[in-house]
Structure formats: structure tokens, C-alpha cells
């Protein structure tokens, strides 16, 4: 019985923080009206949240006679999320975000000399320790979110189908949790991008197709991220619509679509490739070369456009999205394959397009993956259970 009462109070506290997370204008009465909670319940919970520094009360300026109403504001600047992005080979991007999705620190680190997951976790923790020293003692880090180009297997906690060898079949969450004394969450970068789109667009049905080091998908269905039982939900990398003579380097089967769209595979067509350069620089050089020699690459571009179009067709028919996002390195050449992509897609999903399906193309740098990480970590945070400790 006591546990039930505590659970209800914790749930109500989260309802209140959800409401004021991005809104500083609400009074306790406003919160009561919008949530359906009694004014007494709202007052009691807000008092407890204020006591532990999560909310503050601010009087509004009111020229009318009588008491000025008090606004309840989220002290969002004191509740931070550590965002780590491993999408690019040999690169770690680390950012600090408030729970209001405001990035207050962001830096890129070269990790090319690191060849062990334990060493990587130790390095990330050392960076975090250095950065966190710059913040006041009132600041509370609610968690660490890590984006990887791999599938997080929810059954055994390992990373599967990783595009980066360092992460292959590694329990990365478990390793990082040894170094961080705050909750660690890890997920495919495509899922975080889909969550970011959910936040920024407010649409409930979204497909995010990410073609970079590999092929990943993030699906928002009726407002919720689709994961499946073990975390493999909606993964399309190994659908056999590719060249059946090519063996997949990840699963060993033949015909996986990812095999032809892998960044490493595409770079084999670049005659001037300098393997001494970082992978992204090699790709940038190749993109420039393609634009300068479009006729030479007409067959390759048509093939890429056909495969991407088939993926658009399959995912649209399966999930009926309002918004279809294409992101990743492939976007750098998308204007050269756009016509072919839509030509293939329209063959069997023209009805969805006619009914308002919107396509959005985002480069890697436009995809605010940190928003997705922050939203995910905030969603898991329970204000009254995770009482801030003074650092």
C-alpha cells in the first residue's frame, strides 16, 4: 500500500515536470487545470520538488489589485545530460545538454589510438570529469546517453551488427556503467535521431533511414519508438534486396542491402582514395570527385538510388509514416540520386505520397542527435526517486 502511494506521487511529480519542462509561465492552478491533479496535490509535490532544487517559485508582475500569482519554473540549467556520439569512425563527440535540450558544451575528440572498449570508457570518463569540474555543485547529471552505429541487443546487452569493429559484440553499456556513477543508456544512432524528430516535429509516425557506416532505421509509431522484443525492430540492413553475389561482412549472408551501401564499399570506387586520411575525409574527397565526374558514376548512382528507393518503398508500406527522414553520409550525393529514389518509391507507395507523406533530407551535421539522447534520458528520469546529490 505504501509503495503504491509512493509510486503515484512519483508519477504525478513526473507529470508536473513534463508540463513545465519547456514552459516557465504556469502557476500551480494552471498545472492543476492542465493535469487534472488537485491543487493540494500540485502544491504538495511542487513544495517537495522545490525543497530538492528541481523547481523554483517566481512571482509574476501583475498590475491588478491583489496577490501576484506565483509561477512554478523548472531549474533546468541544473539538470544535465551527458551525450556521447560514436557515429563517426575514430571520433567521439561529447556534449552536455540541459534537460531543456540546450547544448552548453560540445567538443570532438580523436579516439583513433584507442583499441579497447575499457580504454574508451576510461577516456570518456576522464573527459567528463574534467568538463564537470566547471559546473556549480548544485548541478546534477541525470545520465549518460551513448549513440552507436550498431544494434543494442536488449537480451544480452551486447552491440550487434556494428559498423565499427571496436564495438562488435561488446557489452558497451556494462563497461561504461563501471566508470560512471550515473545511469548509462545506449542505443542505435538512428533511434536517437527518430526521437529527436518526434520532439521537434510533434508528429507521431516517423521513419528515419540513416545510411552512413551502415544502414540503420529509427521508427516512431503512434508516438512511441519501435524497438521489438530484443531491440532489432524494423532493422533493414540485412534485407536481401542487394547484389546476391556479394557476401555481407557483418552476417555472412549474401544479398544484404547494407553490403552495397556501406561507406567502405562505396569508397572502393574511388580511384584517388588516400587510405591514410580519416574515413570522413576520404568520403568528402570522393563526393567532390563524383560531382566532377558524374557521367563516369552514372551506373553507380543509379544503383544507389534504386536501393535507397526500395528501402523507402518497404519502410513506407510497413509503417505508413507522416514524415520520412533520410540522413547520413549518403545525403552528400542525394541530389544526384533523388530522382531515381522517388521513381522507385512511387511505384508502390504513391498513395502514401499523395496523402501527405513528407520527405526530409538531413546531413549528419543537421541531425540533432543530442536532442534525441537528451529526451531519452529525461524520459527515464524520475525526479523524486533520483534525488539530486551534492557533488
Explained architecture:
The chain has 391 residues and is of the alpha/beta class. The chain has three domains: 1-74, Orthogonal Bundle (Arc Repressor Mutant, subunit A), CATH 1.10.10.10; 77-193 and 369-380, ATPase, nucleotide binding domain (Nucleotidyltransferase, domain 5), CATH 3.30.420.40; 202-366, Nucleotidyltransferase, domain 5 (2-Layer Sandwich). The chain has twelve helices and 14 strands. It has a five-stranded mixed beta sheet, sandwiched between helices. A five-stranded mixed beta sheet has the order 12-11-10-13-14, with helices on both faces. It has a two-stranded antiparallel sheet with strand order 1-2. Strand 13 (323-327), helix 11 and strand 14 form a beta-alpha-beta unit.
Q: How far is the first residue's CA from the last residue's CA?
A: 34 Å
- Main beta sheet strand tally, sense and closure: 5 strands, mixed
In the CATH hierarchy, what is the architecture of the largest domain at level 2? 2-Layer Sandwich
Q: Shape, please?
A: globular
Number of helices: 12
The chain-level structural class is alpha/beta
Question: How many β-strand runs?
Answer: 14
Order of helices and strands: HHHEEEEEHEEEHEHEEEHHHHEHEH
- Taken together, the total number of domains comes to 3
